[in-house]
């Protein structure tokens, strides 16, 4: 039977393993990011000018791993690599965790184009939803997607995550202020749908 938490910060699904990226992952990560550049970068914010590029500079990747570790220590974010049979396949992150009356976070994800369409990302989303609600005690998880990003929309459609409507000019992506469709799951919805989602994707 699959478990969500294997050891430490490793989360395990039926076919995917999620763990924080480490400096030793740079070669695999760089290969995927380089090969999938056209597939990925059109949906992402532009990197800050004059900042080292972690694809080209291992030291920048190591610094990126360190920044994610500090976020984990502070409880402000959790970044995971998605691994399929020990092959690095993408990333899924819980970003901008806010406590107090909000108890909210945002989920972002990307996948190697060669592995897309196999249901790995929906499975990873279910794994991090369980972590967010049951380990972190959050009340709300949001996912925001550019309307024309069909591959990302298929993920939330497969999971039947609730559509909250369009936020106009919500995020600056690749230099353009883009509308995003906002999706959300609350702790109450997770409690109602937990067994259904776990049975479909993790068992």
Description:
The protein is an alpha+beta fold. The protein has helices spanning 26-35, 37-40, 58-74, 120-135, 150-159, 187-201; strands at 11-12, 16-19, 78-84, 87-98, 104-111, 140-145, 162-173, 176-186. The radius of gyration is 16 Å and the shape is globular. It has one domain: Aminopeptidase (3-Layer(aba) Sandwich), CATH 3.40.630.30. Helix 4 links the parallel strand 5 and strand 6. The chain has an eight-stranded mixed sheet with strand order 1-2-3-4-5-6-8-7, with helices on both faces. The protein contains six helices and eight strands. Helices cover 35% and strands 31% of the residues.
Notable characteristics:
single chain, 203 residues, alpha+beta, Aminopeptidase, 8-stranded mixed β-sheet, 6 helices
How would the global form be characterised?
globular
The oligomeric state of the chains shown is single chain
Major β-sheet profile: 8 strands, mixed
Terminal Cα separation, in Å? 6 Å
Rg calculated over all Cα atoms: 16 Å
Helix content: 25-40%
Mean of pLDDT: 94
């Amino acid at each position: 039977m699959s478990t969500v938490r294997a050891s430490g910060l490793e989360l395990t699904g039926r076919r995917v393993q999620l763990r924080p990226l480490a400096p030793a992952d740079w070669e695999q990560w760089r290969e995927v990011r380089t090969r999938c550049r056209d597939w990925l970068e059109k949906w992402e914010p532009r990197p800050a000018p004059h900042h080292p590029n972690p694809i080209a500079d291992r030291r920048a990747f190591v610094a990126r791993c360190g920044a994610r570790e500090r976020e984990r220590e502070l409880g402000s974010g959790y970044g995971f690599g998605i691994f399929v049979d020990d092959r690095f396949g993408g990333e899924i992150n819980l970003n901008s965790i806010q406590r107090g009356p909000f108890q909210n976070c945002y989920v972002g994800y990307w996948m190697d184009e060669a592995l897309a369409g196999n249901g790995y990302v929906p499975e990873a989303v279910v794994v991090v939803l369980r972590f967010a609600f049951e380990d972190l005690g959050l009340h709300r998880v949001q996912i925001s997607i550019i309307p024309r990003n069909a591959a990302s929309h298929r993920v939330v459609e497969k999971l039947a995550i609730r559509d909250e409507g369009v936020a106009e000019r919500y995020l600056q992506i690749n230099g353009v202020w883009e509308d995003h469709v906002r999706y959300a799951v609350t702790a109450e919805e997770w409690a109602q749908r937990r067994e259904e989602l776990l049975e479909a994707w993790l068992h």
